[in-house]
Amino acid sequence: xxxxxxxxxLCALNWAALASSSAKELVLDGQLTQGSLIRATVPAGxxxxxxxxxxxxxxxxxxxxxxxxxAALKHQLTVEHQGKRQQIPLTFSGRQYDIQxxxxxxxxxxxxxxxxxxxxxxxxxxxxxxRQTFSAKTLFLDAPLKPAAGRISGVYGSQRIFNGQxxxxxxxxxxxxxxxxxxxxxxxxxxxxxxxxxxxxxxxIVDHGMGVTSTFMHLHRFNVAVGDTVTxxxxxxxxGATGRVTGPHLDWRINWFQERLDPQLLLPxxxxxxxxxxxxx
Length: 281
What we know:
Elements: H1 2-19, E1 25-29, E2 37-41, E3 47-50, E4 53-55, E5 62-66, E6 74-81, E7 84-91, E8 99-102, H2 107-110, H3 117-131, E9 152-154, E10 159-162, E11 165-169, E12 173-176, E13 182-184, E14 189-197, E15 201-209, E16 212-222, E17 229-230, E18 235-239, E19 249-256, E20 259-261, E21 276-279
């Protein structure tokens, strides 16, 4: 309990730092490592580029970005404020990923039959389209709630081997829980997708603003529908065992547009790094 309380206090301080950045600094909240979502603040009115990509910045100076599992480690932020432009190099740390061997998977999910090829392609297009959604909200600034209770049974980045056959890495956090266990919204948001997809089964995607989305996979039942507004801690679904699974669990994912990021790095119990403050000219 003491560790949990300390983590919550640190996250509260992180949020306060983001909410009250001084007029002359860049604040970065998040671990500078592969798979990380970085929430940041600059003085109001500043413009920001990540490498050469312009980023959306809220009226309060909040913005967000992230890098994927195998991204390069050297990046650059450029901040323009009051006619001055400053380039800030960022060095991310690399990660080593587990190898996870899973047996007992239905063969139709390891080597899908030809008749489902079109469905899989359609599912993939649909998810990509939804994850490209942009809204100006910044509902991701505070620490997310863990969306289900249970042990962690799978982690981000691990190389998956199904029935002895290598497949794509895992891009989510698996939480083992019984069928029907509640799934909670980690942040406020709006439901963008609630569909039955081939590999991920009943799948829910929630928008949190500026390209940040949460995905909840292998569900048993939806408690919300597309277009619904949700609040942090609200039950949005039930844990299930649909799609490519060997048992009931929640696969929770975080995206920044098409970048697939590590939800575990955002949870208070994993002691996120203190905000990094960089003076601006």
